[in-house]
Amino acid sequence: MLHDAKDRLDLSQNERQILSLIRRRGPLPRAVLAQATGLSPQAITNLTRKLIQNRFLDAGAVVRGKVGQPSTPLSLAPEGALFLGLKLGRRLVELALVDFLGHVKIHRQEIYSHPTPDRVLSFARNGIATILASMPQPDRVAGLGIATPFRLWDWGAEMVGWRDFDLADHLGKGLPFPVFLENDASTACAAELIFGRSVLPRDFVHLYIAHFAGGGVVLDGRLRVGPRRNAGALGSMPIPGGRQLLDVASVSTLEERLGHPLPPDDSGWQVPADIEAPWIAESAEALAFVALSATALLDIPTVVIDGAVPPATRRALADATRTALARLPAAGIDRPDIVEGSLARSARILGAAALPLAHFFEPGGALT
Amino acid sequence: MLHDAKDRLDLSQNERQILSLIRRRGPLPRAVLAQATGLSPQAITNLTRKLIQNRFLDAGAVVRGKVGQPSTPLSLAPEGALFLGLKLGRRLVELALVDFLGHVKIHRQEIYSHPTPDRVLSFARNGIATILASMPQPDRVAGLGIATPFRLWDWGAEMVGWRDFDLADHLGKGLPFPVFLENDASTACAAELIFGRSVLPRDFVHLYIAHFAGGGVVLDGRLRVGPRRNAGALGSMPIPGGRQLLDVASVSTLEERLGHPLPPDDSGWQVPADIEAPWIAESAEALAFVALSATALLDIPTVVIDGAVPPATRRALADATRTALARLPAAGIDRPDIVEGSLARSARILGAAALPLAHFFEPGGALT
DNA sequence: TTGTCAATAAATCAATCATGTTGACTAATG
DNA sequence: CATTAGTCAACATGATTGATTTATTGACAA
């Protein structure tokens, strides 16, 4: 029997585990799912039947060539569910419609000198209405995720309007699906966890270098947000010299050295090496310190470095961090691997869309 | 129907949740358990019936005085299960039999100049045999936990015998119950989590100052040990000045300042204020730095400070850490509360006994 | 003061449902 | 024909639901 639109999104833990496994490992036949989940083949038959009926999974072409009955790999249905992501930045607001596989289907953006609640609200409302109107099946949208820096009002007098403004609450009214909101650096981490191309362990720390530096923490395959939604505030980590990470390793400090702002969108940048190199060196010192702190505290094997920076800059940051890490004292612990992220600029908005995805489709809701 | 000794320890998640709730909040009537667990009253009736039959819970005297049928609070049965704890130290090895409520029923110890595998093994084997022989129901012992510093062989040439020696494995042979082993600072944290008198949130970091400094991390009410069993290695946290926490905030550095070792057992100590005070001040700086790092990373609201030190010293350390914390930059995060632990010297051996307890009786096994 | 009864809360009984397992079976292949 | 994927039917476990029982307080009338 087919479920109505409500029940369709009400998945059991085992259904979520199946989808999560296929998301990470690619199309899998039922026998492998049984092995990986520890469930009986019969249970997998029943669960996948329901998931296929509800159009979350597609049965692929049977695979022949091995001894025994051929297997039919099951893959995620791209249109199984769709998600909206809204990313709020200092100079740019973006809205995207993302499919079940993490592909951006529609994208719109707007540049401003600084964001105001009204402006963001009307951009989002118009954009969402337009997107929904253009879709054949708007009820396939499971939710909206918002990625935003926290404490916007600390940016200056013109931003006080954000102080007591609850964007998620305002946008939620009138929308037929739930709204989620997280720190933009946390969503970047969520995106790497859910849509990332790199093979990552179940536990990692994610450092994201944008105008500010921030981060996220993944433990046991789940993004940790903490009791006050402020976990992964890696920019606030104390570092030697009475400073914090964001005082050193952020694009804002590079802009200060440079004397002018860098472009807010994806057009890349050219920064003279004699300015970028010392910024990278100093940032890497701080990043290595933070990476080592995280490892001592949590036994983290891998630290991911990503950011809204050109690929070459990210590469240089990761390399320099590895070097700096080797110089820090690490008695009693193993230094973590430093790995580059795979999503760069798009991490935050993809992560925004990943918030409703995780809520409905990942085991445990993936965020506490 | 009564279960045999095997099945008796095989508790479902919901049974564990009931025991865990009663352990933390004291005796509770069934109606409160239903409310707190979200289970139906009927389910609670069935589950508690089984727990009472298996002697893990006792029904108390009915409580009258309120409108409606009187309630019968259920409390933990002290002899519901018993646990052995073995604590290995630099100068002292201890063995304890601990009951379901965390009370030490039998305790024995032995002093040495340094521990050797043979000596520890024979102390433990003799002690366990003697204890079991003296008990009316030795089958009530659910397991043995071992608390030990890691990397004993780094202490000096006379300790190389520990290098490839698996204490848990050797002791486990011939014992009719499982053996668990963790870092001693982690067990101190586990003890505070499970037996501690303080009311603590579901997330906290625990700093334990003994000959070395170490710690533990509790997230969502569970001790985190990490993929390589090395989480909470807080002594290895980097601090400013190219050092690590254990270079500053440990009893070994106090002994260096003092010029002679302090007594290994519970006899307390007298350290001249002009030596202790600067040690406390410098340690507190480092502890505050580490506490703030943990908060930025994990959104930890509370940091517990405990140690194998006299109460006055612990108090002074906590006070000084609060002061130091207030001076550190904390943009974007809330400084954590600094709380004193409640178990001091006994934390590690109680935590050792808590390892099998957590394995059999806490939700999720309480250690990954 | 005492007897009666409605309201309330705790706890259980019996029936049912959801979701898994087990063991026998079928299907398709090298 | 051994091997592997997958399904069918019967059953087991562990929860929920709704009706029911029990024990009490507190109000009110005799």
Could you characterize the architecture of this molecule?
Chain A is an alpha/beta fold. Chain A has 3 domains: 5-76, Orthogonal Bundle (Arc Repressor Mutant, subunit A); 82-189, Nucleotidyltransferase, domain 5 (2-Layer Sandwich), CATH 3.30.420; 198-341, Nucleotidyltransferase, domain 5 (2-Layer Sandwich). Chain A contains 11 helices and 14 strands. In chain A, the strands form 4 sheets. Chain A has a 5-stranded mixed beta sheet, with helices on both faces. A 5-stranded mixed beta sheet of chain A has the order 10-9-8-13-14, with helices on both faces. A two-stranded antiparallel ribbon of chain A has the order 1-2. In chain A, strand 11 (238-239) and strand 12 (243-244) form a beta hairpin. The longest helix of chain A is centred in the last third of the chain and has 26 residues, at 273-298. The two termini of chain A are 32 Å apart. The mean pLDDT of chain A is 94. Chains A and B meet through strand 11, strand 12 and helix 9 of A and strand 11, strand 12 and helix 9 of B. Chain A binds a DNA duplex (30 and 30 nucleotides) through residues 12, 14, 29-31, 39-47, 62, 64-72.
Tell me the layout of helices and strands:
Two copies of one chain form a homodimer.
Chain A: H1 5-8, H2 13-25, H3 30-37, H4 41-53, E1 57-59, E2 74-76, E3 82-88, E4 92-98, E5 104-111, H5 117-134, E6 141-148, H6 167-172, E7 179-183, H7 184-195, E8 204-209, E9 213-219, E10 222-224, E11 238-239, E12 243-244, H8 251-258, H9 273-298, E13 302-307, H10 311-327, E14 337-340, H11 347-361
Parallel strand pairs in A: 3-6, 6-7, 8-13, 13-14
Antiparallel strand pairs in A: 1-2, 3-4, 4-5, 8-9, 9-10, 11-12
Helix pairs in contact in A: 3-4, 7-11, 9-10
The structure holds a DNA duplex (30 and 30 nucleotides).
